[in-house]
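Aggregate trends can hide what the representation actually does to any particular protein. This step matters because it turns folding into a mapping between discrete strings. For completeness, the protein is quoted in full, as a sequence line and a line of structure tokens:
=====
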Amino acid sequence: EDDGESFCIVIPPPNVTGSLHMGHAFNTALIDVVVRFQRLLGKNVLCLPGTDHASIAVQTILEKQLKSEGKTSEDIGRDEFLKRAWNWKEQSGGRIVSQLKRIGYSVDWTRERFTLDQKLNEAVIEAFNILYKKNLIYRGEYLVNWCPESQSAVSDLEVEMQVVNGHLWHFKYPLISESGEQLDKYLEVATTRPETLLGDTAVAVNPDDDRYKEFIGVKVKVPFVDREIPIIADSH
């Protein structure tokens, strides 16, 4: 509220999922250096602290706790589950704030925020409505990461990738003559995703590969569905 040019940073709010790690300490140090430097320049600086509810991550933690008690979220009901969630927020969030203060973060603790604060909730809903009315938010069908436990879509950040040995499936696509007759010749295609075969619209070959030059422009039949598709050239 002092005179002078304003400079504001909202810290990336840590998730209330336990304790801070070295990544938080590194990020905090970078922001703190910038904030203190801007203050030395005489600017009116606000570094706004806060924590993030991290709903899916917290839900997973609580469900693990319930499992250790031989219970599920369905057993205790919505209200009791939310009560436990808020209790966890106070426990974990309080620990995180205490750690940030011990680090010496130069923030305005009188303005501390939580992502589920009432005013922030209202702001999110208002922003969502504005974006929706501008057709910038819409519903569509996409491939998503799905968690069978929480029955919810999850982001790539929540997924632990695992390398597994795959398998190459080989299919013979019968060649079709100009008169439309099926020939005794085949074009063999290998894929790790055989389920996509039914949606094939063309078979692409390298135009610089002498083995396939003669097939460019010829048609083949998609196995199982007997649909004719062209063989096209694609240098990529």
